[in-house]
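Something for you to look into today, if you have time. Could you write out one complete protein record for me, on any chain you like? Leave the record below and I will have a look.
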Amino acid sequence: MFADQLWIERATSEASFATGSADLSWQNALQQIQALARELRERQVHSVALYFDDAASFAMALLASIEANVTVYLPGNVAQTNRRWLEQTVDLYLSDQKIDDLMLPVMLDAAWPKPSPSDRPPLFQHNIDIFLQTSGSTGEPKIIRKDWQALCHEASTVAQLMPVAVKSNQSVVLGSVSTQHMYGLSFRVMLSLYLGLPIYRQRVQFPELLLLVSQSQKDVIWVSSPTLLHALQPAHDVAMVRSCVKAIISSGGLLQKECRTFLQRHICEDVIEIYGSTETAAIAYRMDEAHWQGLPSVVYQKVANGLEVQSLWCPQPQLLADAVEEHQHGFELLGRMDRIIKLADKRISLVEIENQLLKHAWIADVHLVQQPQGSHLAAWVALTSAGIQQWRQEGRKQVIQLLKNYLAVDTEKIALPRQWRFTTHLPRNAQHKLSQKDILHALLQPITEPIVLAETQVSIDEYYLSFQVPLDLIYFNGHFDQFHLVPGVIQLKWIMQFLQQWQWIEHQPKQIENLKFQHFLRPADVVTMQFKRDAIRQKITFSCSCGEQKIASGRVVIDEQKEQQG
């Protein structure tokens, strides 16, 4: 049973179970859970896979599985490898989205059975197994077994950290993290259930949306990875939610001190960081303290090869490869031990250098690795707006030299990155991690193409497209080394590639008419392009603009003879 069903007692028929795309009361949710559990029993289902965007539907499917004593599997994604795994493992796939090539019985939430008056009230007495996947960002994901009772223990313990107002005000829980992973499961779903709080059904993944939803809901808790919180800038109108946000839970990575200060000063004083992993679940928390505090019932000890952890929700000792330094009042995280490397017989902490760089006004995010094809360090850096401005004014070489000078004050020469790759943001996932594939591509592949942001086909003969100019475009090297700009010939090359991609042309055009380059195209510029095709005259008109400034325009004359031959 879940905390003696305290959550059920709090869930009156008037209380809200979920809100967002559709409001749902506790009474209606419990009736739907009963009906779904009945269906699972009648089908003699022993194991299910859950995959939902809607957090409320996920919670109901999970509770129905507990009521029906059905084992639950939570795939981190529905890529082909996971589909084959599920086909070999589970009896039924429960979801709010269809997969066409899944060789497995599927029940979408729209087809769930209707409640029946004969359905008995749920008891949730079965201690089912729940299997999750680690993120697998640097290799194959691991399968981690949890059980219902362990999740309940964790939720009841974390609930003790929440402000009193949250428990009494029926705050809506907004989340940027997926319910398919441990942090989303623990804090968007389990914590909401334990406290009897409404779940906001959709993931809120962008700063602007987070602010708008918070304002509309009036009284909210944020459950987020640091990635989204770091993206909140003074430029955002955060004053609109100052009285709406009652608590902020950050997990999945370290929250920068400057970000914490900004959140506490402008949004909410109660900022709670949770440290843990899929294997261990929650381990420690940090609020106003300088050091991490172990959660009640968590036993941890520093060992030679990391941190050993055990708790009510992690009864078997687990070893994490996290380097820590113990203090009288808590402990300090020094970074993963696999991120402490040796260069020229010197131990180098990649996390320590990253943290130093993150203090610089030009750095929004950074990831350091040992260069895959060498023995030196490589830095993948996302610049702030101030950093981008410096880049545009001074150029790449000057920015690198100034960053090296900044690091050299407290960093040994051997630990200064020799390769730098710059961008406007790092593509971290909901767990604040980068994939090994993205890291290798960023460091080893030259940047030759624009970053496509959106494509819209208005009609068969009209396209709109927007893209951003990469900071590290290879064509800036050499002639445009100090004042970076995209050469006109490269702009034309991109235009031809887009036209070939849409199959508007297959060969080089006959000519380009009325070609005009009216303004420089610079690093980080966001460009809007319009393409119109005149099939009768065999011409394609294009225009390129950045904000109010016209960048380029012209007409492509199609070589009809070549196209017909092709």
